[in-house]
Amino acid sequence: QAVILLVRPFDEGNERLARMLSYMILMRNGYSFFRQFALSGMIAQDGILYYKAMDTVQDVRGEGDLTCFLEYYLGMLSRSVSGFEAYIAQKHRSKMEEKQPEENKPPHQPIAIHPVVEERDTPLPSRKKTPEIASRQKTIQSIDGIEKCTTPETIIAYITTQQGKQLRIIDTKPHLHRLGITEEDILRAMQESQSEFSQRALSVIRMLREDPTRMFSCRDIELTLGIKIGTVRQTCYTLASLNLIQTTQVRGHGNGHESHRYFCKKALAA
Q1: Does 254 reside within a domain?
Q2: What's the domain count of the chain?
Q3: 82-112 pLDDT, tens per residue?
Q4: Does 166 share its domain with 232?
Q5: Which residues on adjacent β-strands are paired with residue 251?
Q6: Residue 201's CB: how many other CB atoms inside 10 A?
């Protein structure tokens, strides 16, 4: 089966088109019970990012680059699905607790649902911060649940799964330091793995180390290795979270959109 869509985010009917895309993606992933998917509420919360994405598409100097729009829209959809999955998980835990015998049942404690933290390429403007200062804020975030991972293999699997839910660079250094796991241990586990992700990740690392004086964009890696840019971005975010590569943000020409560049610091030192 194939679904072909003509996406015109800069024309009329943006909200209807976005809702149609939402229905299609959700149903194809098993969420056929969805009846409504209100985009307006999300736009109200993320108004600045939304209009920035639209302005980027309409900017003739950008030559029709849809990167900013797609990153915004897909990120919004990913956050919605992740939030709903967290809600389902809470309901499941509540039912499991109700099945426990009363004598063995622990004192009731409210189950907290942690809000899904979104990554913003450009932070929302603040009265106390100029756009230049705000743009330097770190996108590295900590995440709950990683404390259950105690081996390089489980850490790799966990970070890979998290990136599949929402793209963001996760700060794993404190956890790895407590366990005494080094970057070399992570790399060795990846080299011993035969998974498709590990082979792809090792190809990216080799590419960055071959030219240690250069910072690569996702587009550079896509063109060189022949990997889809969405897969490249997810792979690079995972490698950066595992401290196998480094990343920095640069401001693009014309539209002011910030994007990541990747490099290997250890290769530079060598």
Answers
A1: yes
A2: 2
A3: 777 887 888 888 888 887 655 455 554 444 4
A4: yes
A5: 258
A6: 24
